[in-house]
Structures are given as C-alpha cells and as structure tokens.
Design a protein that fits this description.
The protein is mainly β. The protein is built from 1 helix and 12 strands. The strands form 2 sheets. Strands 1, 2, 3, 4, 9, 10, 11 and 12 form an 8-stranded antiparallel beta sheet that branches. Strands 7-6-5-8 form a 4-stranded antiparallel beta sheet, with no helix packed on it. The protein is globular and about 40 Å long.
Length: 200
Amino acid sequence: MNFFVARPFAVPSESMEGTLRPGDRLLVNQLAYDFGRHVQRGDVVVFDGIGSFLPYASEPPPAQRFLAGFGLSSGADSVYVKRVIGIGGDRITCSGSDGRIKVNGVPLDESEYLYPGDAPSTAGFDVVVPAGKLWVMGDHRSDSRDSRDHLGEPGGGFVPEDKVIGRADWVVFPIGRWTSLDRPSGFAAVEGTGGHGGQR
C-alpha cells in the first residue's frame, strides 16, 4: 500500500546515464498509473524487480513492506529505474547488426536520450511483450542490465505493470540538475501502432 502521492528515490547506478546520474534524487509520482491509466512508452519508471529482474528472490516480509510504504525502508536491493521501450502487445525487435530497435516494425529514434557513443543494442532480439508487462532498458545501453539480459530467465525479462512503483517525473537533487523527465519525442512515431492489448 502506498501512503504518499510522490516519493523520493536515489538513482543507484550508471545504467540511465546521461539522463540520470548515480546519486540523483528523483521525485516519483506513485499515482501516475492509477484510475485506469497505463504506463506509456518512453516513461522512466521505478519498479520492484522481484519476479522479473530478480526472478528467484522472494517478497520482503510484511513489516518491511509496511515501512517501505512510509518511506522508512527503501527496498533498494530490489528497486530499479529504467525507460519503458515496449508495453503489452508490442513487438520489439533488434537485428543486432545495425543495432536499431523497432517497435511494431517502426524504427525508434533514440537520439534524444541514448548515452553518447552507445548503440541502441549490440544484442539481437525479437520479443512480443505479454499483456500487463513491460520491456524496459537503460539509456546507457553498454552499462545497463535490463530486459535484454533476462530473456532466458523466468519472466523473460518482462516487468509486470503492477510492480511499477511510479513514474519518475523530476530530478530534484542536486539543485543544479533540477529538471523534468518528459517523454522523448521519438516515441510519437510509434503511437497508434498497437500496445496494451488485453491489459486491464
């Protein structure tokens, strides 16, 4: 149960550079997907990786979940921040040769957020995102363990939507990095191509 509309979160690693830096403090909107709203492609989300990125981990005890609801226990060992590339019903492909990622056959322009010098992906893949799940990747692709790395594990690298804690809307610290985390314009090209098939 969440007790706050917005909650602070500290970025733990380099996987989202250059959008986010280790130690950045984010303001996470925990109501962004309430009232029937879904996660959208391009959103930066904070999620609990138990059952997807940590397929063999167990749920924390009730007392720890209770404290986390008040922000008194971070659960940092199982919490991740990544960008959503695909939503339920999407087919996400990468040939591995040119590194370009396609969403439902449409090449995705990632120039706005991809870490300078990184290819979108050096590994090829072809997946269809199940209903109610997400395909997520870090912006610093060469330094990110994301959905690609969990393809052969239980859950296939897909993150359940109900494991999303919230949408990262702002970098609020350090003060000099105060900025909003808007959805990149490159995702407009794949709007209306499918997705959210069968999601509730």
